[in-house]
Amino acid sequence: MIKLGMLDEHIGFHLRLAQDVSFRAYARQAGAPHLKPGRFAAMTVIKNNPGISQIALGRAISRDKSTITPMVRELVSLGLVERVPSTIDRRSMTLTLTSAGDAMLDDLARAAEAHDRRLDEVVGDQKAVLIELLKKIEDALV
Amino acid sequence: MIKLGMLDEHIGFHLRLAQDVSFRAYARQAGAPHLKPGRFAAMTVIKNNPGISQIALGRAISRDKSTITPMVRELVSLGLVERVPSTIDRRSMTLTLTSAGDAMLDDLARAAEAHDRRLDEVVGDQKAVLIELLKKIEDALV
DNA sequence: TATTGTTATACTCTATAACTATA
DNA sequence: TATAGTTATAGAGTATAACAATA
Questions:
Q1: CATH number, domain A34-115
Q2: What is the DSSP string of chain B?
Q3: What is the pLDDT along chain B (142 residues), one digit of tens a residue?
Q4: Looking at chain B from residue 76 to 115, which residues have their Cβ under 8 Å from any Cβ of chain A?
Q5: Is the CB of A37 less than 7 A from some atom of nucleic acid strand D?
Q6: pTM of the predicted protein model
Q7: Integer distance in angstroms from CA B81 to C1' C11?
Q8: Are B49 and A21 inside 8 Å of each other by CB?
């Protein structure tokens, strides 16, 4: 049996471990509707903020603009996102989901929800507490 | 203001976000005693399980053996880990920390602890609850 | 001068598969 | 046959820096 030593008391360590395990379980389960993990977050942000610029998208998901460029290009080439030059700022692009993108996001949401139902089961009636604590961490450390 | 939509209710999503934020904060703060994140976990496992094989190390931190090889080589070349052929199984290597490795791990532990004290502050008296929930997730989803 | 987005480039982390040497 | 470890290789994900166009 492997011992973990002092790490066992560390929130940061368990955050990493739990995220790792959770993501692997999701990837195993999702299987079919394949789209890389970052894409899901990006598409969700676009859906909820139609017309958003690439820069703003990058800020929303904490990625550099140079990371956003190929990501958006891929989503556009898959027919999931539409990319139109802004009329008010000609440097800027406006992003929206296509109807295919919307449908795909629904599929992904279903897979994510199935996964999250498992997580819900695991944490039981403590879900609200857990999410509240995680949000606190997100807000405090930015 | 960016809206997140349904994701906001998902444990998996907040796990990812909180881990991301936490890791970035740690990286910012750690600054000086530079060693990549996976190394910390590896060295901790070696410290607490002296003589462990590479395969067992890989299992402990959920990495393939081909990921372990260059990782161990780096730690050896930095003088932090000693790597000795096993006398009982000649295919196998035994790993232990050098005294420099032990000292380095102490430094890293201090940085990690400083970071974790911030996390502790954020979650307050809910720390035990949070760790318990994260462990539940780790155990349930393997 | 500052910002949006692209490109070139590079680095890290990771795994798969084929291999060797042992078991 | 199976396991420990290495190597070659490839694919994600990410960022920095230099740049063009526009503000």
A1: 1.10.10.10
A2: ----GGGGG-HHHHHHHHHHHHHHHHHHHH-SS---HHHHHHHHHHHHSTTB-HHHHHHHTT--HHHHHHHHHHHHHTTSEEEEE-SS-TT-EEEEE-HHHHHHHHHHHHHHHHHHHHHHHHHGGGHHHHHHHHHHHHHHT-
A3: 555 566 677 888 788 888 888 887 877 766 545 677 688 889 999 999 999 999 999 999 889 999 999 999 999 999 999 999 999 999 999 999 999 999 988 888 787 788 888 889 999 999 999 999 998 988 887 6
A4: 109, 112-113, 115
A5: yes
A6: 0.80
A7: 24
A8: no
Cβ–Cβ contacts within 10 Å for residue B90, how many?
Answer: 7
* Chain A residues with CB-CB distance to B1 below 8 A: none
Tokens of B30: 């750690």
Could you state, in order of their start, the residue ranges of all structural domains in chain A? 34-115
